[in-house]
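Module 6 notes. Inverse folding takes a fixed backbone as the condition and produces residue identities as the prediction. Think of it as a translation problem where the source language is geometry and the target language is the twenty amino acids. Below is one complete input and output pair. Work through it position by position during the lab.
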């Protein structure tokens, strides 16, 4: 059989490809084609390769390209099977006068024909050819050889068909296809554009697995695309804007890529553009902001101008989209702009090493305020039927980021929106699974078909907590939040989140946002304790909260690295105990005793005596565990000391319990062992407050303090109230 005859047989694959989407009424025509029926019979009855070749050649003459429908292709497969193509793919001997790759090309052509059937594309006999097919993409040879080009096209056809099956991407990744595609694209040989298209599809379907299997190759592609983007002067740079987000790795982006991407974006966004040109650039910038923060923007004047340009463009886009009633909102573009605004908020509130100068910050805060006003305007129009839409979630997210830093401006508008925000947060809290799905949809909507950067919070309430913490300090917003039931919702939320940190759960895998959310809830409750004590006393949800705090603190104070959360829980519990002192749960129950013992542990271990070189007397110093976080801890510690002092006269059993813990004795011993000059006045006041109340509440406490040289220590520190109390019988 001649080489030309083999090429003719190979046209079966092309016929299958060209007709893959066509289902004309050919079944009837096929049944009226006795010649085709006879040749298919001969193909089925062929006893060796030569007879199969001959029968295949006859079949190609009986049908015309485009005349093979799905049913006919399946009948050809049933007649040929996989054995024949398998031998063609592995043979190394070709007929005289033919290149050695001709038989392999024929085998691939037959597979391409068969893969037009989705069922056959998922067949194990096709899947196990993935490594062989992948090697054809980068095989060396004459670039002008038509048979070689045909083989490459057929290989891409097979791999694309496999990728379209439910588990196809996983098989392709395991078979080394991602690396082969990367090499084919970087080599810029025949079919490299098909390699890029298939890579895009695989990254969209299974980003994590692709990067795990072929990170070095994918990074090489990213470097090439980034360099092309930086150099592009034609319309290709806008196409690259759409491709590049898919090729950003889930880990660190190489610095050289960041430089090229920033330079390319600076040139694009600094020009006068139409929306179809500008929007992909904004989405790419948003993807970089979400993955890298501001690290991809260079320091100095050029970087600050670029960042200011980004945020200004984003704010303009948001206002144009949300202020004009009746216009269709391009939600993906606006959500990307939200990400850029969030970057602007972070940089405007950064005190050290900010990219922005002070005048730039002032200007950006002004334009962002106008954009946030547009967001509020949009949210006020959201009805119940739209509350589960991802774009609403994204809009609440950017509003939450703004309120976390700024609540003084737009106060009237924010107060007007608060009832909606409480209802919205409650709706998503009660449907937590759907809320988590919404956060994933927001990431998809905003940036790419993957989930880049840190995981977005899976509930609206966590987004709003920092802003509500500020608002509960103000009378007007606090009254609205209380009226709408926010405190009860926050208690339920806190208890639910607390369950995630309880024994039986692996806290090491919890995102930091869970613990930060718990701390912020504590701050809100602290605000309510101080500004709305009546609410704490009458709302039953706070009784449940108090019970949880009491049972949780003993274990929490023992856990390494969770001191700040323990401080929040201890201080909140102490303040609430003062208000709920008549509750049966606080009348010396095991839970209440365990709580106050843990609170004493937190308060008593903050400071130690530390020797100083060249001095006979030690100084009062922070304990190692407290030292690194004292800036965040000290306000809670002082408030906790004050709250404990207030609890002593309200709970008669507390002073004897404190005495048994030896806290008052050890505190006096600590003060007597350090130089009074090393103890700050506010520390002296805090210590005296606790010691005085314990001494007044219990005779045995007074006696124990006297035995510890309490009067002498009080004199040294000028604690007049303690000295007087201990001098009394």
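Target side of the pair, the amino acids:
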């Amino acid at each position: 059989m001649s080489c030309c005859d083999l090429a003719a047989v190979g046209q079966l694959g092309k016929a299958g490809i060209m007709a893959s989407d066509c289902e004309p009424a050919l079944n009837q025509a096929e049944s009226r084609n006795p010649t085709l029926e006879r040749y298919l019979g001969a193909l089925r009855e062929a006893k060796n390769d030569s007879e199969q070749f001959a029968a295949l050649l006859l079949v190609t003459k009986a049908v015309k390209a485009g005349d093979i429908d799905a049913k006919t292709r399946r009948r050809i497969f049933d007649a040929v099977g996989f054995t024949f193509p398998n031998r063609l793919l592995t043979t190394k001997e070709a007929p005289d006068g033919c290149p050695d790759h001709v038989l392999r090309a024929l085998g691939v052509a037959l597979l391409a024909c068969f893969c037009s059937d989705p069922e056959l594309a998922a067949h194990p006999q096709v899947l196990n050819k993935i490594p062989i097919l992948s090697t054809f993409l980068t095989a060396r040879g004459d670039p002008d050889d038509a048979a070689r080009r045909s083989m490459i096209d057929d290989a891409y056809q097979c791999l694309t068909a496999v990728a379209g099956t439910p588990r196809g991407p996983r098989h392709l990744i395991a078979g080394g296809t991602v690396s082969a595609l990367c090499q084919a694209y970087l080599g810029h040989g025949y079919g490299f554009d098909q390699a890029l298209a298939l890579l895009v599809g695989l990254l969209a379907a299974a980003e994590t697995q692709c990067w795990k299997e072929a990170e070095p190759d994918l990074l090489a592609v990213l470097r090439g695309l980034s360099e092309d983007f930086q150099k592009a002067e034609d319309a290709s740079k806008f196409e690259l804007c759409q491709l590049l987000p898919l090729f950003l790795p889930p880990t660190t982006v190489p610095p050289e890529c960041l430089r090229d991407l920033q330079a390319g974006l600076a040139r694009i966004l600094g020009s006068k553009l139409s929306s179809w040109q500008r929007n992909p650039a904004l989405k790419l910038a948003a993807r970089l902001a979400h993955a890298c923060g501001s690290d991809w923007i260079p320091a100095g004047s050029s970087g600050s101008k670029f960042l200011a340009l980004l945020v200004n463009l984003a704010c303009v886009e948001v206002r144009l989209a949300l202020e004009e009633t009746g216009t269709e909102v391009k939600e993906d573009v606006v959500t990307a702009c939200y990400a850029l605004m969030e970057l602007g908020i972070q940089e405007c509130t950064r005190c050290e090493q900010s990219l922005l100068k002070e005048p730039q910050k002032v200007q950006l805060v002004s334009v962002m305020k106008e954009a946030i006003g547009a967001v509020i305007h949009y949210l006020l129009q959201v009805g119940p039927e739209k509350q589960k839409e991802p774009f609403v979630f994204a809009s609440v997210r950017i509003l939450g980021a703004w309120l976390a830093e700024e609540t003084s401006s737009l106060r009237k508008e924010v107060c007007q929106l608060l009832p909606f925000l409480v209802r919205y947060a409650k709706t998503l809290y009660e449907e937590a699974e759907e809320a988590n799905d919404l956060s994933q949809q927001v990431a998809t909507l905003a940036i790419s078909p993957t989930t880049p950067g840190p995981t977005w919070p899976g509930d609206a309430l966590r987004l709003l907590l920092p802003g509500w913490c500020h608002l509960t300090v103000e009378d007007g917003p606090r009254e609205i939040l209380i009226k709408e039931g926010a405190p009860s919702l926050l208690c339920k939320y806190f208890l639910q989140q607390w369950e995630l940190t309880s024994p039986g759960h692996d806290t090491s895998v919890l995102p930091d946002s869970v613990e930060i959310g718990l701390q912020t809830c504590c701050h809100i409750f602290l605000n309510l304790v101080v500004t709305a004590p009546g609410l704490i006393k009458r709302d039953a949800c706070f009784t449940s909260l108090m019970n949880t705090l009491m049972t949780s603190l003993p274990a929490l104070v023992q856990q390494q690295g969770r001191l700040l959360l323990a401080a929040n829980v201890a201080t909140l519990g102490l303040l609430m105990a003062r208000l709920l002192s008549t509750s049966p749960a606080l009348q010396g129950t095991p839970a209440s005793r365990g709580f106050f013992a843990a609170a004493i542990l937190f308060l008593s271990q903050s400071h130690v005596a530390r020797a100083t070189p060249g001095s006979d007397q030690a100084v009062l110093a922070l304990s190692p565990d407290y030292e690194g976080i004292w800036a965040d801890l000290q306000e809670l510690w002082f408030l906790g000391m004050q709250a404990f002092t207030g609890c002593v006269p309200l709970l008669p059993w507390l002073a004897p319990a404190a005495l048994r813990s030896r806290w008052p004795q050890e505190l006096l011993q600590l003060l007597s062992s350090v130089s009074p000059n090393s103890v700050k006045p506010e520390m002296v006041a805090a210590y005296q407050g606790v010691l005085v109340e314990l001494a007044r509440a219990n005779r045995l406490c007074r006696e124990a303090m006297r035995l510890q040289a309490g009067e002498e220590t009080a004199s040294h520190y000028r604690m007049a109230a303690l000295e007087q109390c201990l001098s009394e019988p």
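Reference fact for the lab report: The radius of gyration is 36 Å.
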